[in-house]
Amino acid sequence: MLIDKLVSRIIDLDSPIVVGLDPRLDKMPQKLRDEIFFVRGKTPEAAARIFYRFNKAIIDHIYDIVPAVKPQIAMYEQLGVAGIDCYIKTVSYAKSKGLLVIGDIKRGDIATTAEAYSHGHIGKIEIEDTVHKAFDEDFITVNPYMGSDSVSPYLSDCQKYGKGIFVLVKTSNKGSKDIQDLITVDGLPIYRHVGNLVSEWGNDLIGEHGFSSVCAVVGATHPEEGTILRENMPHTFFLVPGYGAQGGTAKDLQGMYNPDKLGIIVNSSRGITEAFHSEEYKTYGEHNFAQAARDAVLAMKRDLLG
Amino acid sequence: MLIDKLVSRIIDLDSPIVVGLDPRLDKMPQKLRDEIFFVRGKTPEAAARIFYRFNKAIIDHIYDIVPAVKPQIAMYEQLGVAGIDCYIKTVSYAKSKGLLVIGDIKRGDIATTAEAYSHGHIGKIEIEDTVHKAFDEDFITVNPYMGSDSVSPYLSDCQKYGKGIFVLVKTSNKGSKDIQDLITVDGLPIYRHVGNLVSEWGNDLIGEHGFSSVCAVVGATHPEEGTILRENMPHTFFLVPGYGAQGGTAKDLQGMYNPDKLGIIVNSSRGITEAFHSEEYKTYGEHNFAQAARDAVLAMKRDLLG
């Protein structure tokens, strides 16, 4: 079970941290931008090249202290073909360094379409009698709004190829209340219903650590909801965004751990990769952006583990 | 307002039909496959090339009888970079023939990420002091699960660039009941709440035909729900999937029109593009797949308009 690999790496490294690789062009080091724009012009291809060089340096500086990275595909997809190429290369490079990759793609569609997403991202595609991999992330994030039949293709591929998914349950943003917090006639909010579905979907994919490869996304910004979800989803592993920049603190995560102090992996994106822009790491200089990222991970680790 | 252009084209052509371009490799004409695999090998690049050649022929045969096409990005994305390139070229070719393009991407994410999707798909991306377009669809489909702040970046770009979105409200698949049909304490199912949000989001984008550029996806397989939604969303235009292959009939659509017999555009994908495989169009031969598609559109038009 892939979830066992993730939990083992968290235990071995004592690091329930995933670094979000969500590059923003205006936050890239000036020297890196100048150098690549000079050669390639101010093009989407150049921007994608800058992202890749940046990601590679970040990965080289963190691969031995975190179990996973989480590239957000939107940041790449906005650049079109060159961006998708950069996303795929980032996934591949991270895996070559032993990192697990959570593709933050939040896809969701009806059965045959979900199958195409699943085959492309966590399965295999067949071209006549040949077999190919397209994206090949380890885990992907999935949107549940369209219901069980929109998720089942991913479950098949999780079984078949030893992959995993994180389903949106209670997201970190303020607007998550608009639909996810609506209370149904049985007194439960929507996110609890989704949580119950996620538990069900994961029943056949529970590994030796007691967690399923069908996981949930639960925002650090909702500590109470997270605590209730943990109580009701003992076998579900949580990906927790919203720590740091969005306001979630180490204290907010306490109720989301299980009694063994396992069960979550906490994401930080800008707080790590853009640390070199912050007051705290200013003295590093922008050429040391990757070292600043490493030290920001170590600081986050101290903060989380107390 | 872009929605006016869509409604006008529907009126002019007397054709509330959008053709879904969701190519499946095993359904492509054998001769087209053989020819391209021979030259390019059995690769994702070859598959993408086959899709593009197929789409181009379909578009050439339908651009004068339908207002829009709807490529489903998953079918392309599964092929990786080559697939995304094919998707973008398909969008561009359809637009060059005067078709409106609804990019069926069903994206949904928190604000900064939604902004990246929006800029890439319906807005513009800035690379230093230069401006580029990546996907450039006219409309895209959007998933509402993450709430208002996850949708607002698209609304800004709809205003700024004269684009539109279709938000999932009640989807055509069976599993749509799992979350969308849950009843809240005020007696309304979730899809009604989402419908109300969509109406609200669209208030500032209502055009001269009385419809907003913020539209809804409502499955043909749910005639009762569609009728209730129409009554409660008089200014919302509906994209209606689920006609034909999924079981929706012309009769099921009656309650979704407004009193002027406007307000919906009905999607058919396989029913049109794969018509040449059906019993009805078998005599055409696979080399006439595009002519079969055209005649299937005309048959659908007769069926819808009665």
Give a quick rundown of the structure.
With 306 residues, chain A is an alpha/beta fold. Chain A is built from 12 helices and 10 strands.
Top keywords for this entry?
homodimer, 306 residues, alpha/beta, 12 helices, globular
How would you characterize the overall build of this protein?
Two copies of one chain form a homodimer. Chain A has helices at residues 2-13, 30-40, 44-62, 73-77, 81-96, 111-121, 148-161, 177-180, 190-202, 223-232, 270-273, 289-305; strands at 17-21, 68-71, 100-107, 125-127, 130-132, 139-142, 164-170, 214-218, 238-240, 264-268. The first copy, chain A, is an alpha/beta fold and 306 residues long. In chain A, helix 2 packs across helix 3 and helix 3 (44-62) packs across helix 12. In chain A, the strands form two sheets. Chain A has an eight-stranded parallel beta barrel, surrounded by six helices. In chain A, strands 4-5 form a two-stranded antiparallel ribbon. Chain A contains twelve helices and ten strands. Chains A and B meet through helix 3, helix 4, helix 5, helix 6 and strand 4 of A and helix 3, helix 4, helix 5, helix 6 and strand 4 of B.
Round the mean pLDDT of chain A to the nearest integer and report it.
Answer: 97
Quick one: overall form of chain A? Answer: globular
Largest sheet of chain A: 8 strands, parallel, barrel
H-E order of chain A = HEHHEHHEHEEEHEHHEHEEHH
Layout of strands and helices, then pairs:
The structure is a homodimer of 306-residue chains.
Chain A: H1 2-13, E1 17-21, H2 30-40, H3 44-62, E2 68-71, H4 73-77, H5 81-96, E3 100-107, H6 111-121, E4 125-127, E5 130-132, E6 139-142, H7 148-161, E7 164-170, H8 177-180, H9 190-202, E8 214-218, H10 223-232, E9 238-240, E10 264-268, H11 270-273, H12 289-305
Parallel strand pairs in A: 1-2, 1-10, 2-3, 3-6, 6-7, 7-8, 8-9, 9-10
Antiparallel strand pairs in A: 4-5
Helix pairs in contact in A: 2-3, 3-5, 3-12, 6-7
